[in-house]
From TrEMBL:
This is Zn(2)-C6 fungal-type domain-containing protein. It comes from Byssochlamys spectabilis (Paecilomyces variotii). SUPFAM superfamilies: Zn2/Cys6 DNA-binding domain (SSF57701). Residues 9-37 form the Zn(2)-C6 fungal-type domain. It is found in: Nucleus. One of its GO terms (cellular component) is nucleus.
Length: 440
């Protein structure tokens, strides 16, 4: 393979003196290492950038190319001026009305709905990320090339600004930057670049070494969103998180949403300790400590976390468990996921005979199946799109333990329905479940 031309190599690879494949906007070398792919990109002084860039490389046909070149997309340099564009304004509103709630799943302060849009009006990076994510979501919902093109345009603008931010030590650790990284991670998923995880790696680099004091600021809201995104991928890939949770200081939970965040942190700790490929087996004392923390969290829950089981019949093979807020649903799903991981990680007693070992395995399978049914029932019984998106990781990890054939069929159908509703890709999850069920 010929060496890429010097002008195509990113600055990150050049400074590290490693081979760069020249991919744009992010080279594969930087993708694999989780580094920001820095490039020499010229500054733009005008408030508008003509959208007549070469669309041939994007794979658009001639008719699409002609229509797209008629667009005059404003650069995000001055967000308030950019919103004078009717398309951009409607995409911004779509984020506030339909997508921000996904990020405010466990946040009674609604910082991604109320604070992020306000910050975005004066922050071109955050504004670019909002428009890119909202546009790619509209593209998947409506299957319109125009939205895909707008999403790609503003995603590239986001990359330009991320490069600048990485060279600014003061800005890289603020809440707006972390919020932008969370939105761009969602862009990666909706663009079906799930395996890339460039922005997930970037967020972990941004948080690395920081002492995080959980409070009412935007960086705390960004941290909880990053943690949930990291948990989702870790459960799907059965690996530890990208982030070390030992530097996170959280006050004792008071409100229900605080308890949902607390179980997020506890699940992250369990994942980091138990899902490492080369992680040593848990000693009984360590396992007991983690299980005690989990049991204590469950025992301290108020009655608001108790689901309502409706008496009227419903056409479902899963129990109906109705809850009244997304953070209640998400919290209990994380609880059942942590329970399942600790069940798998439980130390076995020495000296068991064959009958005792068989009973132990059967009991473990019953418990794992019960946890999976409870988790999936919460997802199927409730209409929270924010909780549905958050449930994909737990379902991917726990779903293989469901044994009933009709429940399996219903779960796959529900996943496809949620994909239609949320535009979130589920093929990887369905493939994981199907493969596990076929290899029993």
């Amino acid at each position: 393979m010929p060496r890429p031309r010097q002008e195509n190599r990113c600055q990150t690879c050049r400074l590290r003196k490693v081979k760069c494949d020249g991919s744009f906007p992010i080279c594969r070398t930087c993708q694999r290492s989780g580094r920001i792919c820095e490039r020499e990109i010229p500054n733009h002084s005008s408030n508008h950038r003509s959208s007549t860039q070469d669309t041939t490389e994007k794979g658009y046909n001639n008719s699409q190319r002609q229509n797209l070149q008629l667009l005059d997309l404003p650069t995000p340099e001055y967000p308030r001026s950019s919103l004078k564009n009717r398309r951009v304004c409607s995409i911004f509103q779509h984020y506030i009305k339909n997508l921000a709630s996904w990020y405010d799943l466990n946040d009674r302060l609604r910082r991604f709905e109320d604070v992020v849009p306000r910050h975005a009006l004066d922050d071109s990076l955050l504004f670019s990320a909002v428009i890119a994510f909202s546009a790619i979501h509209l593209s998947r919902l409506n299957h319109q090339t125009e939205f895909q093109y707008i999403a790609e345009f503003y995603h590239l603008e986001s990359i330009r600004r991320l490069i600048a931010v990485t060279n600014n030590g003061e800005r890289i650790h603020n809440g707006a930057t972390l919020a932008a990284m969370c939105l761009l991670r969602s862009y990666e998923i909706l663009a079906e670049n799930v395996g890339t995880q460039s922005h997930l790696h970037g967020s972990s680099s941004l948080l690395a070494g920081q002492q995080i004091q959980i409070g009412a600021d935007l960086i705390s809201a960004g941290f909880w969103n990053y943690l949930r995104e990291d948990i989702t991928v870790a459960l799907m890939e059965k690996r530890p998180l990208k982030i070390d949770l030992s530097n996170v200081s959280m006050p004792n939970p008071i409100e229900d949403n605080d308890r949902a965040n607390a179980i997020s942190q506890l699940l992250g700790i369990v994942i980091n300790r138990c899902l490492g490929k080369d992680a040593p087996a848990l000693a009984l004392s360590e396992w007991t400590s983690l299980q005690t923390d989990l049991d204590r969290w469950k025992a301290d829950l108020p009655r608001t976390f108790e689901p309502v089981s409706l008496s009227s019949p419903r056409k479902s093979k899963f129990p109906e468990l109705v809850m009244f807020h997304g953070w209640h649903i998400a919290a209990m799903q994380y609880y059942y996921t942590a329970e399942s991981i600790l069940t798998l990680a439980a130390p076995t007693s020495a000296g068991q005979n064959a009958w005792q070992k068989t009973e132990h395995i059967n009991n473990m399978r019953r418990k794992l199946a019960s946890n999976a049914i409870q988790l999936c029932s919460l997802a199927i019984s409730n209409e929270s799109n924010a909780a549905r998106v958050n449930a994909f990781g737990p379902i991917c990890f726990c779903g293989p333990w469901i044994t009933d054939a009709e429940q399996r069929i219903e779960l796959v159908g529900a996943l496809r329905l949620w994909q239609d509703i949320t535009a979130w890709p589920v093929d990887t999850i369905i493939h994981t479940l199907s493969t596990a069920w076929q290899t029993e």
